[in-house]
Amino acid sequence: MTTGQRLRQLANVLNASTPLGLLLAACAGCSVRPGPRGLLIATGYRWRLPVAAAFTVGNVVLYRAGPAEAADNHLLLGHEERHSTQYACCFGVPFLPAYFLATAWSWWRTGNPGSANLFERHAGLQAGGYPPAFPGRAARKSGVKAGSTAPEQNEA
Fold first, then answer.
1. Adjacent-strand bridge partners of 60
2. Do residues 120 and 105 lie in contact, with contact meaning Cβ atoms separated by under 8 Å?
3. What's the rounded Cα separation, in Å, for the pair 22 and 142?
4. Are 55 and 62 in contact (CB under 8 A)?
5. DSSP readout, the chain?
6. CB 82 within 8 A of CB 122
7. CA nearest 7: which of 92, 93, 85?
8. What is the pLDDT of residues 88-134, one digit of tens each?
9. Which residue has better confidence, 12 or 151?
10. Residue among 3, 5, 62 nearest 31 (CA)
11. Chain segment 59-86, per-residue pLDDT in tens
């Protein structure tokens, strides 16, 4: 592990987010094993919420999938690792209300929980399974109407 990864691991233990993640994993009946870069991998999460393939609490990454599937998804693990760093930067549990506010903002702006959520954007939208941020913006700048492949013609 790098020094930064060790600092993140220590910060998330001290700020109580990793112990909270371990408690959640235990209550949900997940099996927990050490993962790469100081992360803990909890598999077999079956509760209804949150509706996601994986989510992170502190340094604990909770997966709906089993151990083999979780180990094979390096892109999603990288996304969740960035959330682990966000917990450390937000001093742990205060990350949760900030994240929920960012999610509400994203729902209001885009109709989905991630595209305008600054935490998800920083963690990587595609890696987290979210649509691109503001997908129509590039098309509007180029003069292409949504659903069209040709630039708009200026009427004289």
1. 40, 57
2. no
3. 48
4. yes
5. --HHHHHHHHHHHHTSHHHHHHHHHHHTT-EEEE-GGG-EEEE----SSS-SSEEEETTEEEESS-HHHHHH-HHHHHHHHHHHHHHHHTTSTTHHHHHHHHHHHHHHHHSSSSTT-HHHHHH-TTTTTPPPSSTHHHHHHHTBPTT-SSBPPPP-
6. yes
7. 85
8. 999 999 999 999 999 999 999 998 899 999 999 999 888 888 888 76
9. 12
10. 62
11. 999 999 998 888 888 999 999 999 999 9
Tokens 């909270």 correspond to 20
Token output for 41? 């991998």
Place of tokens 């994986």: 54
Residue among 116, 135, 133 at smallest CA distance from 144: 135
- The tokens for 106 are 């994203």
Q: Which two tokens stand for residue 67?
A: 């151990």
